[in-house]
Amino acid sequence: MVENRPILNFVTHAVLILGVLFLCFPVWMALVASTHGPDALSKSPIPLWFGGQGWDNYTQLLSAGLPAAGGVPIGMMMLNSLIMALVITFGKIAISIISAYAIVYFRFPFRMAFFWMIFLTLMLPVEVRILPTFDVVTKLGMLNTYAGLTIPLIASATATFLFRQFFLTIPDELVEAARIDRAGPVRFFIDILLPMSRTNIAALFIILFIYGWNQYLWPLLVTTDEALYTVVMGIQRMVNSGESLPVWHFVMGTAVLGMIPPVVVVVAMQKLFVKGLVESEK
Amino acid sequence: MATLNLNALGKTYPGGVTAASDVSAEISDGEFVVLVGPSGCGKSTILRMIAGLETITTGQLDIDGSRVNDREPGERDIAMVFQNYALYPHMSVRKNMEYGLKNEGLPKAQIAERISEAARTLRLEGYLDRKPRQLSGGQRQRVAMGRAIVRQPKVFLFDEPLSNLDAKLRTELRAELKALHHRLGATFIYVTHDQVEAMSLADRIIIMNAGRVEQIGTPMDLYLRPATRFVAEFIGSPSMNMLEGRIGADRASLSFDSAPPLSLRGDLPGVEGQRIALGVRPEHLDLAGDSAGRIDLSVRFVEQLGADTVVHGAVSGAEVPLAVRLAGVQRHETGTVLPLSYAPGNLHLFDADSGRRLEVEAG
């Protein structure tokens, strides 16, 4: 619709702005709440502007943590979340790009059978296979380890499929030119395929990092050691901290802190992502 | 620089489709050989078998006397230029040209020297640090040629390299290719579906149809003495007129199913009643000075090309299409009848069933 009528402009903008306000309000409330004292949020009216306790709240969160929630500093939890998200992201990208390479460029027996097996795992997300996976992890002695936290989440049919589809669009002549240029399979993968997949990798990085960062159910199951708690778990534990009232200002502060890394990743990678969309490399 | 020996090469795909069979040719050092034919005739398959991108199912391929059937493309000492350029999109022009040499393990100084020389030859000096997407089609194809040149291979292979370019650029690059071949003195094997390209570039043409070689010869061999009806119709534009008929009782006339017989000078080969095709090129027909023309053409439409005029029509009284190419600008109305003459030496006769050429007996 390419129309240029002032009223229409006004209406569309109004709708968009309303939508943005609607989406941003909870974030705003979290920011505001994290700068008040413990009492401000329990009585009405709820404050809509920053209070004076922001500095104190955040320093306590980052350094000491909450006694009621095990006393783990949020900084520690954030580090755990970061490690988990990054290992999952890199692991998923590495495994899926290599399997897609094998499926697209090599002729081996039962190639399609393998592809469909990978594809079928799309129907088995963590939540479905959680009991058997937990059993396996327990028997391997991986409870309360980073390995147990990440490895079961690494296999990814979606990313494999995405890379496969991308590889299929690369013209055969390019592969042939590389063969004539004496590039073996490994050379071709490193010199040609990886750099060409740069934008796809960036896009997947964003999606997978957020996926890894937001993991909740799995870390809750495999970690009982406080040193391995992640931020998302930390928030949950603060809300359910026994008999005492939820400490909303800390909860909100943790939520705000927990939002920062995904936002950083999105902002940083978006440039590469958009660049990849604009400049078509063909 | 190398000689190639194609010995009964054949390719059958696992599904049972035969793309090429029994292709034999000897290509000598420094020769410019063009493989030409309509699409699907197997010419690209042959080139890809020479390159090693396609396995050879039957026959043997020798480069410089040694069998290369089972060698990888990188080990055959060939370079190839593709129709869609096949440049590495994320590498600069320089990197694109360097890549093969780096994999060969050539010293850096030598690589740089070869690249600057190739860039000078192909007028790419100003573009070495650009990415392929920042170049025009013609420049990209020159980069692809540069990538081949720097390798200094024994054989250059070209797979329809000019087909993606516009007509003017194609003519320009054709001349450049010819000059390049002159300077390098290397063996070139070139695939195209464009007979003009084949005629203008080749020392020798291998013309293929349905996976088989129809004829191998110099462009003039093919033009003047086409071995089969297919070759006769493929080479030349507009293509050769073909009049199908039966040899008359006097063996000097051609009778049509629905037209008066055409009498020809000289004895026709073959036997009475044999079905033959009589070919004559549009440029070998001329307006007869008097009305004693040997063929009458009733005009349907006229193409004015400036240098020539191509008159399309049919043999008068028969529904056999006929075209004539006349020099200069000429006007002929639709419906008029033009008496045409030809020199007997310019006639080609083919067996209508086998398509083989029949030699006209002297007399």
UniProtKB/TrEMBL annotation, chain A:
Bilayer topology annotation: Multi-pass membrane protein
A biological-process GO annotation: transmembrane transport
Segments forming domain ABC transmembrane type-1: 78-269
Keyword Cell membrane: yes
Cellular component GO terms, alphabetical: plasma membrane
Localization per record: Cell inner membrane; Cell membrane
Protein name: sn-glycerol-3-phosphate transport system permease protein UgpE
Lineage: Bacteria, Pseudomonadati, Pseudomonadota, Alphaproteobacteria, Rhodobacterales
From TrEMBL, chain B:
Pfam families, alphabetized: ABC_tran (PF00005), OB_MalK (PF17912)
SMART domains, alphabetized: AAA
Keyword check for Mitochondrion: no
Keywords in alphabetical order: ATP-binding, Cell inner membrane, Cell membrane, Membrane, Nucleotide-binding, Sugar transport, Translocase, Transport
A GO molecular function held by the record: ABC-type transporter activity
Similarity comment text for this entry: Belongs to the ABC transporter superfamily.
Protein name: sn-glycerol-3-phosphate ABC transporter ATP-binding protein UgpC
Source organism per UniProt: Antarcticimicrobium sediminis
Gene (UniProt): ugpC
